[in-house]
Amino acid sequence: ECTGGTVEFIKRDASDLDLSKLQIINILENSYLIEFNTLNPDGTHVIQVYIFDEHADGLLTLVDVRYEFSYGGF
Questions:
Q1: What is the pLDDT of residue 52?
Q2: What single-letter DSSP state applies at residue 58?
Q3: What are the residues whose beta carbons fall under 8 Å from the beta carbon of 34, sequence distance 6 or more?
Q4: How far apart are CA 35 and CA 4, in angstroms?
Q5: In this predicted model, what pLDDT tens digit does every residue of 16-52 receive, in sequence order?
Q6: Cβ-Cβ contacts under 8 Å for 60 (sequence gap 6 or more)
Q7: Greater confidence, 41 or 12?
Q8: Percent of the chain with pLDDT strictly greater than 70
Q9: Reduced to 3 states, what is the DSSP secondary structure of residue 45?
């Protein structure tokens, strides 16, 4: 409740749950996955993401990004 999220009270069997009314659906519909390869996975990286949108364009720069590898995925 303190994160700006949504609180829904639903029946115990969730028969009245309508996922299309939750704000998370809009977020998922408008999300993106960005992947890239690097020759130096142990170093630091500068990542620049160019954003082109009908409402606002921009550039996001992330500096000194490091990656951690874990077996089995995330």
A1: 83
A2: E
A3: 49
A4: 29
A5: 888 777 777 666 777 777 777 788 888 898 988 888 8
A6: 48, 49, 51
A7: 12
A8: 77
A9: strand
Angle at 69 between CA 68 and CA 72, to 5 degrees: 140
Cα first-last separation, the chain: 27
Whole-number Å distance between alpha carbons of 32 and 9: 30
- In sequence order, what are the beta bridge partners of 70? 73
At 61 the pLDDT is 92
Alpha-carbon 62 to chain mean position: 15
pTM of the model: 0.43
Q: Which of 47, 39, 41, 36 is nearest to 67 (CA)?
A: 41
CB-side neighbour CA atoms (13 Å) of 37: 1
Q: Do 45 and 34 touch, CB atoms closer than 8 A?
A: no
Structure tokens at 28: 């998922």
